[in-house]
């Protein structure tokens, strides 16, 4: 069975569930278009877990198109992908979390090769998001300087993350 066929099968099996779990399916950017199309038809999920799928910024931007219409989405797990390779991923997430009045409360970006170049955007969505309560940035390439920028953003937050 091809990866695409496995992905389609998994999506079809989860149509009526509250959580969409697509862990370790290695869907890459090509599969993100399929997942995005699926989520536009089935936007009811409260949690989407896309851990370990080789997703880069191109794939995430496709997914964000679907996420913006998911009013019930509370938990988004994108850990163990490649989202830190350029700023477009973080800018797409900023747009999702802030500009689109998202309800996402938990965002897992652990182990995504995120570096200091993306920290400013992350700091902005920490400050500007009204819903974000938990953010996991462990095992990225954020230096002490990047950590200080994040701490300043957290200090200016009205409620703790």
Considering the chains and any ligands shown, give keywords for the structure.
161 residues; alpha/beta; Leucine-rich repeat, LRR (right-handed beta-alpha superhelix); 6 helices; 5 strands
Mind telling me the CATH superfamily name? Ribonuclease Inhibitor
Number of strands: 5
CATH fold-type name: Leucine-rich repeat, LRR (right-handed beta-alpha superhelix)
Task: Write the element-wise H/E pattern from the N-terminal end onward.
Answer: HEHEHEHEHEH
* Structural shape: globular
Q: Kindly provide the radius of gyration, computed on alpha-carbon positions and rounded to a whole number of angstroms.
A: 15 Å
Q: What's the architecture, going by CATH?
A: Alpha-Beta Horseshoe
Poorly predicted sequence stretches spanning 5 or more consecutive residues = none
**How many individual helices?**
6
CATH class: Alpha Beta
Largest sheet: 5 strands, parallel
- Tell me the span between the first and last alpha carbons: 42 Å
Q: Classify the helix fraction into a percent range.
A: 40-55%
| Structure classification | alpha/beta
Query: Beta-strand level of the residues, as a percent range?
Result: 5-15%
Order of strands, widest sheet = 1-2-3-4-5
**Number of discrete domains:** 1
- Overall pLDDT metric: 94
